[in-house]
Write a structure and sequence with these properties.
The complex is a heterodimer of chains A (about 110) and B (about 110). Helices cover about 0% and strands about 60% of the residues of chain A. Chain A is mostly beta strands and about 110 residues long. In chain A, a hairpin with a 5-residue loop joins β9 and β10. Chain B has about 110 residues and is mostly beta strands. Chain B is built from no helices and eleven strands. In chain B, the strands form two sheets. In chain B, strands 2, 4, 5, 6, 9, 10 and 11 form a seven-stranded mixed sheet that branches. A four-stranded antiparallel sheet of chain B has the order 1-3-8-7, with no helix packed on it. The chains are: A mainly beta (about 110), B mainly beta (about 110). The interface between A and B is medium-sized, with 24 and 26 residues.
Chain lengths: ~110, ~110
C-alpha cells in the first residue's frame, strides 16, 4: 500500500537553512506536495512538484525530488521564527482526488 | 464567511452520545474530504465526496457516518464512539486535484 514517511522533529537556528525530508513508496505518484500546519490551524498548501521534475524553486522554498530513490525534500532558506510549524509531505496518484500524507515534521526555529 | 468553516471547533462527548461535525466551504469547489489527525500518525483519509467518486476508507469504523447533501456542505455523524477516536478532524475541499483547502478542524474528545 501507499506509505509516506517523515522524521518527526527538526530544530534549527533562525537564519539557517532547514531541510525536511520525506520518502514515499508509490511509484505511480504523479504529484508530490508540501503542506504547512501552524498551531491551531488546518493545513495550507505550500508548494508541489510534478513527478517528471527534479527541482522546483519558489522564493525561499526549494523542492528536490529523487524519483529513483522516492525521496522528496523541502529546503527553507533563511528560516524565520514564523516558519515554525508542522510540515506534511503528501502524494497523489493519477486520477485520484485523495492525498496520502505523512505524519508531519515539526520544525522548531530557535531565535 | 470565506474558505472552509468547521463547527464545532471543540467537542467533548461520552461514548453513548450522538453528535455531528459540520463543514461548509465557500470556495465553489467540487470535492470535499474528511481527514483524521492523531498525534505522531499520518493524516488518515476517512471520506471523499466529489462528482467523480465517493471514497470511503475501509478501515473507518461504521460509528462514523458521512453525509454530503450538496457540494458546499459535509457532515460527519458520530455515534457510540470510543476514547481512541479522540483526535482532530479536518475537513477540506478542492477544485484542482491535490490542492486541498483545509478548515481549522474540530477537536474531538471522547470520554
Amino acid at each position: 500500500g501507499e506509505d509516506v514517511e517523515q522524521s518527526l522533529f527538526l530544530s534549527v537556528r533562525e537564519g539557517d537553512s532547514s531541510v525536511i525530508n520525506c520518502t514515499y513508496t508509490d511509484s505511480s505518484s504523479t504529484y508530490l506536495y508540501w503542506y504547512k500546519q501552524e498551531p491551531g490551524a488546518g493545513l495550507q498548501l505550500l508548494t508541489y512538484i510534478f513527478s517528471n521534475m527534479d527541482m522546483k524553486q519558489d522564493q525561499r522554498l526549494t523542492v528536490l525530488l529523487n524519483k529513483k530513490d522516492k525521496h522528496l525534500s523541502l529546503r527553507i532558506a533563511d528560516t524565520q521564527t514564523g516558519d515554525s510549524a508542522i510540515y506534511f509531505c503528501a502524494e497523489a496518484e493519477t486520477g485520484r482526488r485523495a492525498l496520502t500524507f505523512g505524519s508531519g515534521t515539526r520544525l522548531q526555529v530557535q531565535p | 464567511e470565506t474558505g472552509v468553516t468547521q463547527t464545532p471547533r471543540h467537542l467533548v462527548m461520552g461514548m453513548t452520545n450522538k453528535k455531528s461535525l459540520k463543514c461548509e466551504q465557500h470556495l465553489g469547489h467540487n470535492a470535499m474530504y474528511w481527514y483524521k489527525q492523531s498525534a505522531k500518525k499520518p493524516l488518515e483519509l476517512m471520506f471523499v465526496y466529489s462528482l467523480e467518486e465517493r471514497v470511503e476508507n475501509n478501515s473507518v469504523p461504521s460509528r462514523f457516518s458521512p453525509e454530503c447533501p450538496n457540494s458546499s456542505h459535509l457532515f460527519l455523524h458520530l455515534h457510540t464512539l470510543q476514547p481512541e477516536d479522540s483526535a482532530l478532524y479536518l475537513c477540506a475541499s478542492s477544485q484542482v486535484y491535490g490542492e486541498l483547502f483545509f478548515g481549522e478542524g474540530s477537536r474531538l474528545t471522547v470520554l
